[in-house]
Design a protein that fits this description.
This protein is α+β, with helices and mostly antiparallel strands. It has one domain: Alpha-Beta Complex (Aspartate Aminotransferase, domain 1). The protein is 29% helix and 22% strand.
């Protein structure tokens, strides 16, 4: 993907440029994230497909030559469950042949949702405000 003449600007374009195995693995991961976070919104940022929740970035997906990655600060408490993967502060690496287990993805997403809600309380969804107009009264 590094030798592209034009950079992808959407998730669909990004995935279309990947080899079949990587594309299929990231499409499965994308669906798992969307199923676990029904209120999340997809977006494309930092050159990667991503997800926002409550208007805040949650996770990103990416592909490299020899691995795939789930990007975003790894929530606390997952060290033992991630021992078979290469993990840094901001990424979990995996391969199409050894993807992240669906239950693990769901738990990571739920933890990320909780982190966002704790830091930025959910915005109340209210009806649009009516704009008051000034009425001139003649005496």
């Amino acid at each position: 993907m590094r030798n592209l003449l034009t950079k992808p600007t959407t998730t669909k374009e990004y995935l279309a440029l990947l080899p079949e195995g990587q594309r299929a693995a990231l499409e499965r991961l994308r669906e798992q994230i969307l199923n676990a976070a029904r209120d999340a919104e997809e977006h494309f940022g930092y050159g990667l497909p991503g997800f926002k929740y409550n208007d805040h970035p949650m996770l990103y997906l990416g592909a490299a030559k020899k691995h795939l990655a789930l990007y975003g600060a790894v929530p606390a408490g997952f060290k033992d469950r991630l021992k078979d993967f290469t993990v840094s502060k901001g990424a979990i690496q995996f391969t199409p042949e050894k993807p992240l287990p669906a239950a693990l993805v769901k738990d990571i997403v739920k933890a990320k949702l909780a982190e966002i809600e704790a830091r930025w309380p959910l915005k109340a969804r209210t009806a649009p405000r009516k704009v008051a107009t000034k009425v001139s009264r003649k005496k």
